[in-house]
UniProtKB/TrEMBL annotation:
Its EC number is 3.1.26.5. InterPro entries: Ribosomal_Su5_D2-typ_SF (IPR020568), Ribsml_uS5_D2-typ_fold_subgr (IPR014721), RNase_P (IPR000100). GO terms for cellular component: ribonuclease P complex. SUPFAM superfamilies: Ribosomal protein S5 domain 2-like (SSF54211). Keywords: Endonuclease, Hydrolase, Nuclease, RNA-binding, tRNA processing. NCBIfam families: rnpA. PANTHER family: RIBONUCLEASE P PROTEIN COMPONENT (PTHR33992). It holds the Pfam family Ribonuclease_P. GO terms for molecular function: 3'-tRNA processing endoribonuclease activity; ribonuclease P activity; tRNA binding. This is Ribonuclease P protein component. The gene is rnpA.
Length: 108
């Protein structure tokens, strides 16, 4: 799974991406050239809680992304954890993620 690491890539997704929300996860999606490899980033803001709490949220997001076969080719996606992410199973989050991707026109 290729991840977004550079500040420039994050800013590119934030400035040109589409934002979609669900109770369990928020996402910003940017469609790129079809030939580009897809990239994904997992974000859990500090306001959610301590490091253990945030790491659990990111683990759930990573597992849900794997279940949805992310990253899709030609897309860059940033996934944000919410308070509800922590108490949810990866299966629940993957269903929420599939509905968000469908709204963006991405098959997940």
């Amino acid at each position: 799974m290729e991840t977004i690491k550079s500040k420039r890539d994050f800013e590119e997704v934030f400035s040109g991406g589409k934002r979609v929300s669900h109770r369990l996860v928020r996402a910003t999606v940017l469609k790129c050239n079809e030939g580009d490899l897809g990239k994904v980033a997992f974000v859990a803001p500090k306001r959610l809680g301590n490091a253990v709490y945030r790491n659990r949220c990111k683990r759930v997001l990573r597992e849900a992304a794997r279940a949805c076969s992310l990253p899709a080719q030609g897309t860059r996606i940033i996934l944000f954890a919410t308070k509800a992410t922590h108490e949810s199973s990866p299966d629940e989050v993957s269903e929420a993620l599939r509905s968000l991707l469908k709204r963006c026109g991405i098959n997940g």
